[in-house]
Amino acid sequence: MGDDVISFVAVILLIGGGVLFPLKTIKVSVLRNSKRMGLFSVVGHSPWRTRRLLIVGYHGVSQQDEHVWDPALFLTQAALRKHMELLVRNNCSVLSLGEATSRLARNDLPPRATVITFDDGSYDFLARALPVIREFGLPVTVYQTSYYSSFNGPVFDVAVSYILWKGADKKIEGREFTGVPGLLDLSTKTQRSSVCLQIRQVAHRNRLSTEAKDALLERLAAALKVDLGPMRANRILHLMKPEELSQLVREGVDLQLHTHRHRMPRDRALFAREIIENRNFLAEVGQPHADHFCYPSGVYEERFLPWLSELGVQSATTCDPGLATHKTRSLLLPRLVVPSALTDIEFEGWLHGFSQVLPRRADQRDVTPVWDPAREEPTPAGAPTTPAVL
User: Fold this and answer.
1) Is the pTM of this model over 0.85?
2) Which residues contact 130 (CB under 8 A, 6 or more apart)?
3) 382 neighbors 297 (Cβ within 8 angstroms)
């Protein structure tokens, strides 16, 4: 009875915004007590949950230290395996994306319906994620961006951030990289984010080619005394190659749309070009149908919806956490994007739908600004994609 009282008090504190204790601490306590009291099972086996679809989203599975650099986007292989174990242990109906969206529209979902998705199509999916998914025999969709797939090198935007983090204890002259004289202080996330944005803006302003950007990464790494050898040898922050993607399609992995250049232009023609080039690339590697989409960086606007419909896109996922019903707009499907900080009990709470009813606040993670030339101003990378569940 004492534990029941604690659970009740925790709920009151949680609803009140976590005045006495951090919200995450209270939430984890509530979830643990709720599971012990059988509430997970009650909600998970209810018609309410059966009418809802959980789409789980991952970005990367760390090969070395990526989960330390950016825990919002990367998790360990062990953490991914635990999630797959929880899916099986809780008897979730793991569906392909196509089947799930079709059955969702018909309001014909099986119990605890769940979809597994990965964003971007980085090499770590092939090296670290797929072996785990194969262990459990589960269907998976990769939202594959395509521009860097044919270039066997690290993706410039994220590689800059990673190199700055690796060299955070150094101070170097910034003129060559930011266009501004003076020493670069990389000791804090905020300062690294600012420097990263400046470097990317300079690269855009100077219209650097992909090869020139790669050379700039080499110079930046050399200045910071960061060895890029392991990054290149292990293909950290690289995309999968076309031949690797073709093999995945033959093995039953579903590849879907994520734009060609990982950006969302506000111009209609440029927007259509991103989808068409991405779809053509996926067709070339053997994907028979590419009519499902994921918004890059979780950025979406109302204007995009009719454009996607005209392009034959049947569903689109956001990075807004939640469960979808047959009444949810098919081009604004919620998705649980999983960070390293998500505990097992929180993940299990989402599988049963229990976490859907708990209060959430936006994540306050310090994020790296993204410079997207298709937008009028810099936008925070990870701000939309950072899960608001902690």
Assistant:
1) yes
2) 140, 248, 253
3) yes
